Amino acid sequence: MTGPPLLGDRLRGAAWTFLTAARTEQRSMRGNPLLLVNAGFLPVVLLVIAVEAQRPPADRAAQIVTSVMLTALWGSTVWTSGGVLRRERTYGTLARCVCGVESPTVVLFGKSLGATLYGVGTILVATVATVLALRLPVALAHPFWLAVGLLVVVVSATTLGALLSCLFLLTRNGLLWSGALMYPVFVLGGLLIPQDVLPVWLRWVPQLLSLRWINEFLSDAAGPGPSATPLAVAVALTVAYGVVATRTYRWSIDKARQRGSLDHA
Amino acid sequence: MSGAAIEVEGLGRTFKVRGGDVVALKDVNLTVGQGEIVGLLGSNGAGKTTLTKILATLLLPTGGTARVLGHDVTSDLREVRRLTGVVLGGERGLYAKLTGRENLRFFAVLAGVGRRGLVDRLEAALDHVGLADVADRAVETYSKGMRQRLHLAIGMINEPPVLLLDEPTVGLDPVEAERLRQDVAVLRSRGTSVLLTSHLLLDIERLADRVVILADGEVAADVEVAEFAKLAGYTAIVTVRGTGCPPVLDGAQASRFAVDDLTEASGLWTLRLRVRDWSVESFGHLGAVLGGATILGVDVAPLRLEDVYSHVAAQLAANGRTGVGEVRP
Ligand SMILES: Nc1ncnc2c1ncn2[C@@H]1O[C@H](COP(=O)(O)OP(=O)(O)O)[C@@H](O)[C@H]1O
Ligand SMILES: [Mg+2]
After folding, report:
1. Which residues form the ABC transporter domain (chain B) (predicted)?
2. Are residues B135 and B244 located together in one domain of the fold?
3. Ligand nearest to the CA of B41
4. Which of A80, A89, A90, A257 is the mutation pick for testing B, counting most B CBs within 10 A?
């Protein structure tokens, strides 16, 4: 037998598992109807509704497009990356996923990334196609910051998806919760409906959603110029999601191994 | 590395369920040596799957200890997982929308197979379990047997030194089951240690070095396969049909043969004898027993492990052990 693996080997092993998990999840997203509805169809509908009443000027159009895309991303996150562990349970694959050589968290985040990338890609394609079809004048003011924003979006949605996955795992009714969570955030998420329209006692809700801060960052980038604060808050929230997700997941797995419910549907 | 492949000491597992506790394992003690293949028997609910899951780190014990190649299954998870392959079988546990190859690839990486040589290894494993032709079809189109074979490929993909097989032949047709037995036989030559649960005693007979029977949460018997066969107290059954007066066994004959059953109907009788030790002389002794009778036919059936198991199960049940069911009279 060989001794304990070196740190470099450990990291390489974890990265390989992470990427394989992402790739596997991407493949299993092919033709997923939940993804097509939430990432493909939703942005088209929202965008058409938003701009057909009144054609916006170029800088405002960019903001609308951003809000619509992030709203669609919330929808697809709830169902796709947020559904990773729920699907694992349905297929009966959870046991193998948590009893691999690498940490279960590596597998979960990898899968969440795979689902997120697929969702973001679909949303981008659907949105760009709609923007072109509607001949919307969208100005790309700061391509660099746009790219930074996109990167943060992917990382943040990945972590948020993992967190939702873990929370849904705590209940046997993940599907129900996905449905229940989706629409309130459309209203309360501060993405489509401005936050100041909400009653004062509900205004804290959007503050907890990283996507809302990324929306602010991208809106600023399209208009007056990027500001650091919303980006920093989004990153901080993302880290917090990650920590809570990891803790919750470990706790759920330990509980399941104690109860003997790891391979329950 | 020295020592046993699997060491289980005082292992217990109690499940909390509504309305009380279910004791699946009470006090299990068991060792599987390196390179040894041990067959695990026991009726439904005896705790075989529970034991397998504890060894595979899927389930925590509520008492006692279990070690795989010296690594504790509750504290040294990473090493245990690296060194152990498990096949729990069944139709779940696979991604239905993904192809067989994609499933195998993902689980291979989880089991610690690196990037180098992965493609070749997948190819060889799929070929080995006879799924090469259907490897690029979605698993949802697979038959039960194909899924079971994929489970096997997954469990063995990292060539673990310790393999846990829980009912691997369930759902396989006779040809597939035979192929699986050959696969396990190959493992023997590689020096893999195997804990094999099966309802099919043929599996045990062909593959195992030793038999462990679980009953009532404890090990009720732990013997070499050759010894196991002797537990029944006989090695063959001779069925004789004849007319006229059926033979009667005297004292010396009764030490070699035991009358299992004697039926008479309309002048015909059928006598079933258990032969304690079948040997060349047995024919002579049998001739003496059947001496004056008019014989119509004789049929000799060697002992099957099924018979031993029924016998042992019946004895356990008679001793008040509830863990062994399905006892035939
Ligand atoms: N997760 C669980 N929760 C409650 N009881 C369980 C659970 N798993 C197994 N059991 C009980 O433990 C006993 C042993 O089950 P099992 O190990 O599956 O037996 P076997 O594999 O020998 O048929 C049974 O009575 C079964 O009902
Ligand atoms: Mg079982």
Report:
1. 6-241
2. no
3. 1
4. A257
